[in-house]
Specification:
The complex is a heterodimer of chains A (362) and B (164). With 362 residues, chain A is of the alpha/beta class. Chain A contains 16 helices and 13 strands. The longest helix of chain A has 22 residues. The chains are: A alpha/beta (362), B alpha/beta (164). Chains A and B meet through strand 7, helix 5, helix 11 and helix 12 of A and helix 2 and strand 3 of B.
Amino acid sequence: VHGRYRILLGMAAGVGKTYRMLQEGRQAQAEGRDVVIGYLEPHDRPETAALADGLEAVPRRRIPHGSLELEELDVDAVVRRAPELALVDELAHTNAAGSRNEKRYQDIDEILAAGIDVISTVNVQHLESLNDAVFELTGVRVRETFPDRVLDQADEVVLVDLSPQALQERLRAGKVYPGGRAEQALLNFFRLDNLSTLRELALREVAEDVEARRAPAELDELSKLAVGERVLALVEPQPRSQRVLRRAWRSAQRLGADIDALWMRRPGQTPTPEEATQLAAMRRLASILGVHFLEEEGDELVEVVRRVARERGSTYIFVGTPDERRWVEIIRGSLLSRMVRELPGIDIRVVAHRALRDELHS
Amino acid sequence: VRPWPGRKAAVRRPGQPRLLVPFTARQLDAAVLDAALRIAKAEDAVLVPAYLLVVPLEFGLDAPVQQQELERAMPILEAVELAARRAGVPVDARIERGRTPVDTLRRLWKTERFDRIVVPAPAPGHAGFSPEDLAWMLVRAPTEMLILRPAPDGGAPDEPEPES
């Protein structure tokens, strides 16, 4: 029997993940469960250390490292001890060279496979798929990452939340880092804008996790119709459509939705060699992503989209930033306003390019 | 008010040279990307970053690829596209698949035209093309190839992260 895995996710250090993990461990112990600390990062925080008192800690494995001796989670010792629940801090941690597993989340996999429940902690910036977004938003490149599948495979992901202002207060009070280090942290990573961004990422991650866990199999047919999603990506033989399709696919994955891609060919239109190359590339990408590629003939995009959306049951449309001429927009109304008008009940998302945000700030 | 922000983006023209930058690792080396962008800019070329997926023999080549693999590719392509846009270089990204990196490349060469190929040289600590792959490419590439040495520190400059 595989153990149950509960992950406490936070926006940054100091929000109280380790504290919460220990609280939950103590609570489980009070309820009569056999609980051990597999690995705890006390961070020299007296309140945390006090909470760990009374919980059995499995001795750590010592690994020689030059003149030093490093300590790591001893997976074999935890498995031999065979508790009902093991508390293991910092799942994104990279183990010392010479360890059996490179990362601690792999150690946790082994503990879970032995039928032991695990509660662990992690900060959102360590999530592999957010690595570039975090770098872009905060300017900090996080080196220790863990794959998204770890969150996907956990039985529960729980957000440990604190407002950015409250976290800054905790820093100032010396509850996260000692004096000098706290001041430096407040000026760098723990700036209000960084914390707000990371908090939003953490909230979004947990919200998407909740969405992904909603079991469609348990819904009756009527409910499926009410809450089921189907994504339609509008593409054209242009390089930018590759990105539209990729973005649409990622959202479809999170929504648990099927996805179609639609290209509208004008009557009698023969693609130029360059367009043919782009179309072939688009079809290859669609095949790789498992997207149904639809090619429909028509004069009026909104009309074709309306028909296809009705036939396929689309609920969510992805479109690239329209590149309409101003005079067309004035005479006929913009493509987007026509889509909103003609496609009631369907969400529409315009995929913009991230780089253009730079211009907003310039 | 700037009505259509897209107009400022780098514009692609028909017949523009195409510079292919294939990669297989979990990231595209920053030094290689930087060099490729400078070359593309100087030659007024379109940058074609291509993430090469290797499909094991037990899976069909026409079946959808595992989500985990794709989740890895997407942020890298996003980052490369972002860098290209910031550098004012038009970009036309690809995700391609085959049985090996060179098989994937061969499939791509057969379907699309490229005017130059830029690849990172193998180096300690860098996943990617092996010396054998590079030798194969040098013999069979349909166009000029440029092999670049990766950054000695392994890519983009890292900043220390806070403990959690």
